[in-house]
């Protein structure tokens, strides 16, 4: 088992290397290269420009620049953000909790609804409920996430005005931005009020992400459930005279939900993309919003940092999913 | 299957006579193409998808004609009337007018569809060309090209397209639809490459490939004449579903202002600037172009599902 995990980790090393090359290439593809970003000020003298170029090693051969950059990324020196003027990793890690919170809540909501819906649709195949789930899946899959978010915002935030439309907390109540020391102090004193406040703010963005996910996952669970129902061992279980309840819960469901484990890893980029979109729509102070701010401000170190971290996280969760699958499914040999 | 059954039955009833010997009884033999067509039409939603998409395409690409026929109802994208700005849906403007300049949104949706559809379709044509080339080379030759390709697709699947596309359009300062389609195409080929690769890995071990190789057929001919036709089904399905994905992605990117920009209109760029007016209750500006995207993508997804069923050899009626 440990051997399998180590081997799987080693297998991901080339992926990480290629990813770093791709990101480096993107940075070089910026017209004028990173040089333009650093030495763009036309008021600088030629000597000052050359000094900047030399200081950042931009006069070195490309491959040396690459190794310097990779070395810096792995030792945690992610440079300063141009417009926030703070170390990039500090900026990103300050925003990460909000994104993780949103993704976790959205994913939990999504699975809580998608798994039962998929199972019921499979058990009552071609029933009205099944048709409804199919219809919902088609429409949910076809709606642009950003548009769905805007529609929900419009209906529940503007016309009905029952839910807040932006941010993660009400700053007038808390008195400080999310996760600042002052906010943490306030949250420590008012845990219930603070939780309710976040819960109220998270409903719309999380629902937006979850609806798209439910559309996909309910179909997935349904198909995998139908596949399991027609297996020989299920017929055997029925023939033994087991109750339908036991057949479904013990024999079918456990096998049907197995592929869902790998599905989590495959869905992670989709989930993250959903979070990026909804963060932009609902001004949720997470990584996605940060990325678009960086993009608008031509803040290349920040963009590279976010892309690098995203890539690393996705690769890491792919490995976790593979290992989890190997543990859950005894047929996978990890010798 | 049904045809075979009928044939057997006929032979069973008249064991000594060849069918159609002295009376006219022709059992129709279906070609593969006909079987795929029949299966596609049997899908409950696919034909409606074709119909819907055809209507949308005729409406969008016929927009200049509608404009000459009804110059007041369908306006050019360059026409606007400030007096109409921010007016809700009415008979003259069924989708209302935008709140900044007073464009008729219905006309913009028709003209905008031209760019959205061509970007979706064009980018996936490029993606198919790239994906088939890379996937075929990797799957047929194996070894180092295969390993390299797998790593590159891994990375492209790792980095969310949603982050890479706006970055790329910003880097290349691309607000030209041609470049945007190019960027979308360069970021959509990896799933097709994977499909082609996995198909080729199994197809190249089959006996007909071995026979072709034994006869001295060059690799390029084996790939294009013997292997590729067998992989067409999954490629067509991925092509169709990719169009849907890229139409949605274009809408989002242009909505944010990183893609097509007004005064060029796509379904996304119609919406740029609409967000601020949502808060004051201008619901129509966002709703109708978005509904149009949803309807189009729904039709494309219906077609994609129908094609998947039609090409799937495992499903027999």
Helical proportion of chain B, percent range: 55-70%
Order of helices and strands of chain A: HHHHHHHHHHHHHHH
Annotated CATH architecture of the largest domain in chain B: Orthogonal Bundle
Give the radius of gyration of chain A.
24 Å
Give the number of DSSP strands of chain A. 0
- Amount of beta strand of chain A: under 5%
Shape of chain B: globular
Indicate the percent of residues in helices of chain A. over 70%
- CATH architecture title of the largest domain in chain A: Orthogonal Bundle
- Overall SS class of chain B: mainly alpha
Number of domains of chain A: 2
Instruction: Say which CATH homologous superfamily of the largest domain in chain A is assigned.
Output: MetI-like
Whole-number mean pLDDT of chain B? 82
CATH class of the largest domain in chain A: Mainly Alpha
Count helical runs of chain B: 14
Structural class of chain A: mainly alpha
Number of strands of chain B: 0
Descriptive account of the structure:
The complex is a heterodimer of chains A (335) and B (317). With 335 residues, chain A is mostly helical. In chain A, helix 10 packs across helix 13. Chain A has two domains: 74 residues, no CATH class; 235 residues, MetI-like fold (Orthogonal Bundle), CATH 1.10.3720. Chain A is globular, with a radius of gyration of 24 Å. The termini of chain A are close together. The longest helix of chain A has 39 residues. Chain B contains 14 helices and no strands. Chain B has two domains: 41 residues, no CATH class; 259 residues, MetI-like fold (Orthogonal Bundle), CATH 1.10.3720. The longest helix of chain B is centred in the middle third of the chain and has 37 residues. The termini of chain B are close together. Chain B has 317 residues and is mainly α. At the A-B interface, helix 1, helix 6, helix 7, helix 13 and helix 14 of A face helix 6, helix 7, helix 12 and helix 14 of B.
């Amino acid at each position: 088992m440990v051997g399998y995990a180590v081997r799987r980790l080693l297998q991901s090393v080339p992926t990480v290397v290629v990813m770093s090359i791709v990101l480096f290439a993107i940075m070089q593809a910026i017209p004028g290269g990173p040089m333009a970003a650093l030495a763009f000020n036309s008021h600088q003298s030629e000597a000052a420009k050359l000094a900047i170029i030399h200081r950042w090693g931009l006069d070195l051969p490309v491959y040396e620049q690459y190794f310097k950059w990779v070395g810096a990324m792995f030792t945690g020196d992610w440079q300063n953000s141009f417009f926030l003027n703070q170390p990039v990793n500090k900026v990103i890690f300050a925003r990460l909790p909000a994104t993780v919170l949103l993704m976790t809540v959205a994913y939990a909501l999504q699975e809580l609804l998608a798994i039962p819906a998929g199972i019921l649709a499979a058990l009552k195949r071609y029933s009205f409920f099944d048709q409804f789930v199919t219809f919902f899946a088609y429409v949910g899959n076809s709606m642009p996430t950003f548009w769905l978010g805007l529609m929900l915002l419009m209906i529940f935030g503007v016309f009905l005005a029952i839910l807040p439309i932006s941010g993660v907390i009400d700053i007038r109540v808390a008195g400080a931005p999310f996760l600042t020391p002052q906010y943490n102090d306030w949250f420590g004193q008012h845990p219930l009020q603070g939780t309710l406040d976040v819960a109220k703010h998270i409903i719309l963005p999380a629902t937006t992400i979850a609806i798209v996910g439910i559309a996909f996952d309910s179909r997935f669970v349904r198909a995998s459930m139908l596949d399991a129902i027609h297996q020989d061992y299920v017929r055997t279980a029925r023939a033994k005279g087991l109750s339908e309840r036991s057949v479904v819960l013990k024999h079918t469901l456990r096998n049907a939900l197995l592929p869902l484990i790998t599905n989590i890893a495959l869905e992670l980029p989709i989930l993250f993309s959903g979070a990026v979109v909804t963060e932009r729509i609902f001004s949720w102070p997470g990584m996605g919003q940060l990325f678009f701010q960086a993009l608008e401000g031509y803040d290349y170190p920040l963009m590279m940092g976010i892309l690098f971290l995203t890539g690393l996280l996705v690769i890491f969760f792919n490995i976790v999913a593979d290992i989890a699958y190997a543990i859950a499914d005894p047929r996978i040999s990890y010798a | 299957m049904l045809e075979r059954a009928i044939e057997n039955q006929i032979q069973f009833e008249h064991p000594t006579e060849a069918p159609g010997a002295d009376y006219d009884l022709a059992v129709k033999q279906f070609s593969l193409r006909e079987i795929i067509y029949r299966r596609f039409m049997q899908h409950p939603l696919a034909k409606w998808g074709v119909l819907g998409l055809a209507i949308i395409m005729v409406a969008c690409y016929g927009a200049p004609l509608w404009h000459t026929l009804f110059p007041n109802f369908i306006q050019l994208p360059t026409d606007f009337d400030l007096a109409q700005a921010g007016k809700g849906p009415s008979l003259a403007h069924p989708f209302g007018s935008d709140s900044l300049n007073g464009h008729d949104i219905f006309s913009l949706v028709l003209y905008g569809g031209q760019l959205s559809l061509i970007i979706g379709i064009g980018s996936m044509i490029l993606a198919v060309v790239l994906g088939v080339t890379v996937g075929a080379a990797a799957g047929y030759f194996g070894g180092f090209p295969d390993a390299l390709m797998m790593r590159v697709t891994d990375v492209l699947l790792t980095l969310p397209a949603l982050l890479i596309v706006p970055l790329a359009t910003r880097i290349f300062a691309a607000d030209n639809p041609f470049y945007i389609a190019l960027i979308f195409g360069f970021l959509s080929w990896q799933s097709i490459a994977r499909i082609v690769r996995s198909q080729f890995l199994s197809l190249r071990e089959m006996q007909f490939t071995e026979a072709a190789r034994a006869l001295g057929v060059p690799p390029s001919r084996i790939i294009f004449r013997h292997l590729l036709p067998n992989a067409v089904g999954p490629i067509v399905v991925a092509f169709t579903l990719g169009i849907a994905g890229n139409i949605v992605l274009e809408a989002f990117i242009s909505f944010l202002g990183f893609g097509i920009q007004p005064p060029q209109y796509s379904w996304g760029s119609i919406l740029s600037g609409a967000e601020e007016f949502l808060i004051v209750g201008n619901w129509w500006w966002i709703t109708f172009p978005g509904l149009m995207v949803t309807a189009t993508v729904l039709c494309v997804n219906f077609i994609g599902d129908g094609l998947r069923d039609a090409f799937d050899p495992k499903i027999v009626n």
